[in-house]
Write a structure and sequence with these properties.
six-stranded antiparallel beta sheet; globular; D-amino Acid Aminotransferase, Chain A, domain 1; binds pyridoxal-5'-phosphate; 9 helices; alpha+beta
């Protein structure tokens, strides 16, 4: 098993002062790095991105960086220095690639914490590169999902932006609790539903539904994270003779769909084969085309 690599980012945001040396440094991933008073630890007060790494390259690199900047703005965090993040993540990946010779896929997860509450330090960041689990069964055989109430209306991005719907914060305890509830109900994953009855996204993935010759995904404006993997699928859809639509999707449409998927950077496209115990059509050929496209990307 290849060893993960860690790069700590001492000056992750623009205009941060302190030290003339490099804004980041390689560290031992098994050694402690954060204090117990760091706000990422005590409040989940920070943001992150997880990107797929293939043949030493970070896929959808610029879009992940832009999404980090968007998340920072929505949490009133200082603006992340994207050049520093680009260099630091590449350094982590290069070190991991050297350690993981012959490994086709991996991931890099990078974070920005608001900093240490007691010490009053500015924001700190890190980039952690490592192997990914084997997702081939979920990609090929599909996943059973349950629909779970997210308890938020699709209006909240407008009416209550402090609820951070659709923002990639470090506070994923709710998402993890939803996945445990799915397991209790005999499923592997979740599609969240808004209080006004619209399907949203998975706890770590985007929902795509095929309705005839259209691929449909919920609009980011209703409080879902804009997915980089879904965007790559949508960019290719016209070449497959499919239209793309960002619009509302309800449970009835999912149950009658010609195919449905949860997509994300490391798991790629996992077909949904069951919803709340009801079988769903699995589009085997489109699934393999999606995953062939997604696994062939080098950018
Ligand atoms: N929605 C949520 C809530 C997520 O956490 C993620 C990824 O982790 C996604 C969607 C999928 O985004 P991407 O395809 O960019 O990985």
């Amino acid at each position: 098993m290849a060893t993960a690599t860690l790069v700590m980012i001492d000056r992750p945001t623009r205009g941060q002062i302190g030290g003339d040396g490099a804004p980041y440094r390689r560290e031992d991933p098994l050694a402690p790095q954060l204090r117990v008073t760091d706000l990422a630890v005590t409040r989940g007060d920070g943001i992150f991105e997880t990107a797929m790494v293939r043949e030493g390259r970070i896929l959808a690199e610029e879009r992940h960086l832009r999404r980090l900047a968007r998340s920072a703005a929505m949490l009133d965090l200082p603006e992340p220095d994207l050049e520093v993040y680009r260099d630091a993540t590449r350094a982590a990946v290069a070190a991991f690639g050297a350690a993981a010779e012959g490994m086709a896929e991996g991931m890099v997860k990078y974070c920005l914490s608001r900093g240490d509450e007691e010490l009053g330090t500015g924001p700190v960041g890190w980039a952690y590169a490592g192997p990914t689990p084997d997702f081939s069964a979920a990609r090929e055989e599909g996943i059973a999902v349950v629909l779970l109430d997210r308890g938020l209306s699709t209006e909240v991005p407008e009416t209550a932006p402090w609820l951070l719907a659709g923002v990639k914060t470090l506070a994923y305890a709710v998402n993890k609790a939803a996945l445990r509830e799915a397991r209790r109900r005999g499923a592997q994953d979740v599609v969240f539903v808004s209080t006004d009855g619209l399907l949203l996204e998975g706890p770590t993935s985007t929902l795509i539904v095929r309705v005839g010759d259209a691929l449909v995904t919920p609009r980011p404006q209703i409080g879902v994270l804009p997915g980089t993997t879904q965007e790559d699928v949508f960019a290719q859809a016209p070449a497959w003779g499919l239209r793309t639509e960002y619009r509302d999707v309800r449970e009835s449409e999912l149950l009658a769909a010609d195919g449905a998927w949860l997509t994300s950077s490391t798991r790629l496209a996992c077909p949904i084969r069951r919803v709340d115990g009801a079988d769903l059509a699995v589009d085997v050929s489109l699934t393999s085309r999606m995953n062939a496209l997604l696994t062939a990307r080098t950018a």
